[in-house]
Amino acid sequence: MDALLAEKLVKEGKIRVIKAKNTGIIKKLMNDFNLGIGEAGTLTLALDRECDAVCTDNKQGRKAAMLNNLNLIGSIDVVVSLHKLKRIDKSKAIGALKALKEFGWFHEYLIEKALEDIKNV
């Protein structure tokens, strides 16, 4: 389902797909951190383009990002930020956090703190 949604957003021009060209860094990240090509490509783009931040919840991807001095954000951060920016309403934010709680690998206290943050906006 996620792949279909992503494909739709690409076709609508809401998501732009950029390929990382530095295959050497991609291969090194894949080998050094046991990453898949998508995660390694994302981190390579972040390094090459000197991005402000990279979004990943992948444990090994987070390690690689930290060791390469990339600013990290995760799914929970995205939901809270979108709500604070008034891009999504409170009920949608709470629903997203409940889905992350059910389907994700997050510590419960992280979800609870985010729910508290959303309720206090």
Termini Cα gap: 31 Å
**Main sheet properties:** 2 strands, parallel
Radius of gyration: 16 Å
The amount of helix comes to 55-70%
Mean pLDDT over the full residue set? 93
The secondary-structure element order is HHHEHEHHH
Query: Strand order of the main beta sheet, please?
Result: 1-2
Describe the global form.
globular
| Low-pLDDT segments | none
Describe the structure.
This protein is mainly alpha-helical and 121 residues long. It folds into two domains: 72 residues, no CATH class; 45 residues, no CATH class. Strands 1-2 form a two-stranded parallel sheet. Helix 2 crosses helix 3, helix 5 packs antiparallel against helix 6 and helix 5 packs parallel to helix 7. The longest helix has 14 residues. It is globular, with a radius of gyration of 16 Å.
Based on the model shown, name its key terms.
mainly alpha; globular; 121 residues; 2 domains
In short:
The chain contains 7 helices and 2 strands, in the order H-H-H-E-H-E-H-H-H. By secondary structure, the protein is mostly helical. The chain has 2 domains: 72 residues, no CATH class; 45 residues, no CATH class.
